[in-house]
Design a protein that fits this description.
The structure is a single chain. The protein is about 55% helix and about 0% strand. By secondary structure, the protein is mainly α. The relative contact order is 0.12. Keywords: Hydrolase, Metal-binding. Its cofactor is Co(2+); Mn(2+).
Length: about 220
């Protein structure tokens, strides 16, 4: 049996009210009505920075990360390849289970910051798609397109502290401007290699070719 405390209800996202687009409030379960009421009474400015409609629009756009397949595997004709969000999720798990790494900035909550960065680092691909070296697009142009896409997504979220954090995380990763960013870039490579080994084990792809290991990493 689930147990829900009042404190957890006050942190429930305020976009519950947007569910009224799909179902009448009178038929909404009591728990959701309580959560909506609690969130409306929450005066925390961080929680209030994202409006219900902005959150829904942002999350709907992010759904593309679940349905867009990783282009490298598509080009290698892997059947039912992983999505962008599949890749980011396992990177987040890598950060979560990693031991403390000497030199990581503890003021940034160390690997918790890395978990966030892993979740954010490919977010712009919801708009621009998964650009690979085979596409003939320069690293500079790829970065420009992704920055523009990320700005759009942050604006869609309505600005505020949440959008700023996403923007800062993405820029830190893109520019490799911290030890945390370098660690997450290593996770990016390791996750790709692990996925390749799993596909080879399942006979989905042959990774023994000379060009395989070079091209997927050239944008890292």
């Amino acid at each position: 049996m689930w147990s829900v405390s009042r404190s957890s209800l006050t942190t429930f996202p305020s976009f519950i009210s947007s569910l009224n687009k799909f179902t009448s409030f009178s038929s909404t379960p009591k728990l959701l009505r309580m959560a909506s009421s609690s969130s409306n009474n929450n005066n925390n400015p961080d929680n209030a920075s994202v409006s219900p409609s902005s959150a829904i629009d942002f999350l709907t756009l992010c759904h593309r990360l679940k349905t867009t397949k990783r282009a490298g595997w598509v080009k290698r004709e892997v059947q039912n390849p992983e999505s962008i969000s599949d890749h980011m999720y396992r990177m987040g798990l890598m950060a979560l289970i990693s031991a403390d790494i000497p030199g990581v900035n503890r003021d940034k909550y160390a690997l918790f910051w890395c978990v966030k960065m892993a979740i954010v680092h490919d977010m712009a691909e919801a708009i621009v798609g998964d650009i690979t070296p085979c596409d003939g697009i320069s690293k500079t142009e790829k970065s420009r397109r992704e920055r523009e896409a990320l700005d759009h997504m942050c604006n869609l979220l309505g600005g505020g502290s949440r959008a700023k954090e996403i923007h800062d995380l993405w820029m830190e990763y893109e520019e490799s401007s911290s030890l945390e960013a370098k660690i997450v870039k290593d996770f990016d490579k390791v996750e790709m290699i692990l996925q390749a080994l799993e596909y080879e084990k399942g006979k989905a792809v042959n990774i023994s070719g000379d060009n395989y290991w070079k091209s997927p990493l050239s944008f890292s």
